[in-house]
């Protein structure tokens, strides 16, 4: 007996925790940039599972790599070596120039790993007094949902009711170099930021901000940590978004698209100094670096490069932004973005972005609202020009009609 969409939704509501508020669509199949619901309706995916499926849904080469490895060996723990981990290290190092790599599972785990490692580096290498290490972060940041991470969030929804929180973090406005410089002390061990703030609404800092931050970190012996979990792996039209500013972080965090949506995989990419402080027993993960994850990640990286997805993100992103910018709508305040990481910010008086996302769903487009008045657009990087034209017709209809 087939179930109706409302049956699935009711069961989720009855049995699941209510920590999400998804759009009312029940998906059952994905291919490339398209998704289908349980009633057979097709949608253009403009979220990519928060940029986890940059390579498109169910990419056949990644799927085949997963199936092949799943038939051989899936998990050993790091108590033993496996024949895929070293190969992933080599692939990541060749692509990014990383000298040391630590694989984890989720993006939040990568962030927590970096925080632990850089504090230890501060004490053992920089000489910060025990218990005094400070990490500078940015207002409106989003680095995950763990207790350690929400402790330095400025989002009241993320923080309320979860304290007390760990000390050791200073918050400065994103993109404000003077505030960053003023926050630095002799106890500052790291500056942690997103190159573009995704959850905050695709916020891009002033040109040159990260170049000056890089110079400051170098001059004051501070580790620059860039969270590229959403912005990295082609999303902005570069392998890493830091390339737009011509900088190189000391520690770069990647995840999400590192597996093309097939499996949770993340990694801390570092210079030798920071990750070099970790000794056996001081940090780890049962699933981190498992052979199945490594085989999937290796192919996910390979198809990004082989199939020109990074370059496609740049060209189709520019075309998409141009088309959105030409829509004459009193609801739209600004269109901004880099590559296929795009935001349509609405005037507050236009009503909430959620209603526009619901209207877009009815037109066959799945996008996500963020921070009340922003529609976030991040389709898979296999998007074609025809796909963009199809989407623009529907965005035009919804934005000019109103929600």
TrEMBL record:
Required cofactor(s): pyridoxal 5'-phosphate
Protein name per its UniProtKB record: ornithine aminotransferase
Example of a GO biological process term: L-proline biosynthetic process
CDD domains given in the database record: OAT_like
Pfam families documented for this protein: Aminotran_3 (PF00202)
Pathway: Amino-acid biosynthesis; L-proline biosynthesis; L-glutamate 5-semialdehyde from L-ornithine: step 1/1
SUPFAM superfamilies cross-referenced by the UniProt entry: PLP-dependent transferases
PANTHER family: AMINOTRANSFERASE CLASS III, ORNITHINE AMINOTRANSFERASE, MITOCHONDRIAL
Family: Belongs to the class-III pyridoxal-phosphate-dependent aminotransferase family.
EC number, as in UniProt: 2.6.1.13
Gene Ontology molecular function: identical protein binding; ornithine aminotransferase activity; pyridoxal phosphate binding
Enzyme superclass (EC): transferase
Gene3D superfamilies: Aspartate Aminotransferase, domain 1 (3.90.1150.10), Type I PLP-dependent aspartate aminotransferase-like (Major domain) (3.40.640.10)
The entry's keywords: Aminotransferase, Pyridoxal phosphate, Transferase
